[in-house]
Amino acid sequence: MNAFLRIVRTPELRNGLLFMILCVTVFRIAAHIPVPGIDTSGLEALLAGNQFLGLLNVFSGGTLKSFSIVALGVGPYITSSIIFQLLGMIFPSVEEMQKEEQGRQKINRWTRIATVPLAFLQGYSIIKLLQQSSASLGVHMTFTTLDYLVTMISMMAGTIFLMWLGELISERKMGNGLSIMIFSGIIASMPGFVAKTFAATTSFDYTNILLFVGMTIVTIVGVVVVSEAQRNIPVQYARGGGSGSNVSSVLPLRVNMGGMIPILFALSLIVLPPLIAQFFVNARTEMIRSLATHTIALFGNNLFYGVAYFTLVFSFTFFYASVIFKPDQIAENLQKQGGFIPGVRPGEQTAKYLQWVTNRLLFLGAFFLGAIAVLPVIMQDLTGSQNLVVGGSSVIIVVSVIVDMVKQIEAQLTMRSYDQK
Fold it and tell me: The whole model's pTM is what?
């Protein structure tokens, strides 16, 4: 309550919080404006019966269910970000640009530009997928060329609009704006999700409810522990006046440096193979048709899906850490500032030591985060409830976003308390 009162009394934080609420409100209003020409009567049944579209619905912030103008969410922008981060690992020139402020601004500009064709492609993919399911689920979607164009432009514009709102929120340092958009959509759909879970449970069997509550508590505790855990590396800075004048400090290394980003990356990729395979189930070539059918069946298998999801989360935890954490640069900066780690030689040995410690921490964090991510899949096998798969991913994203928001707001409060002193 004391922190909340300090936020209310600080004009910058109060205005930033009100602005974030306004942006989220605008987003939720847009989430109920359907794309022209779409019959949404059968969409809920389609999303309930397809775990990949269910994950896409989570990824879009719950907007795919109503096929609104922001149905794609910020997915295309995140995909574009992944592409340019991968390019930085492949091409040295892009990696050099990522190290400089001007270069990062240029890459951000390219990322926004690349979001437009990706939004067109993803919009077309989802429309085609829903069209293929129209016969069995009553989703009537007969499109002319003009209908395709209007629908895809509307969805692309919605994605760009959300990207803009998210960046405005991020500028006020109230949290990651794009993550907050996904977070708000999940929170808005939570009451209906919980009601549906309880409605599907008979009066004589509350096992599903108990397992769901237990899974939610374990997920919340696990994500908070992994997000907050860190190892402090002792650092000493030599100062003039003899050996007794060294200044001690610590270098904090987090167990999970990427926060919720590995989960978002994994979700963005786990849905692609079956989504693409949907286009080829009616192909004329028998081999292509058989490959598409087997791909969809493979990703529909909970064992394979769980292993693939765990592997992606595990891999992206290391990948994102390699993007944001550079042991060589840290070792170089420590050496320039006269700092050293006790018992470790400055320079190359310090970089190797930091990399060794980081790999051990990341292994623990990646394994824990991957286990939490696939826990809902295990619960689905035990309960037979499809809702738990989507619900687990939602809880991970919600908890991670809240932790990030609290940390950023606390940092601003601390900074302003120093300014007042």
Answer: 0.72
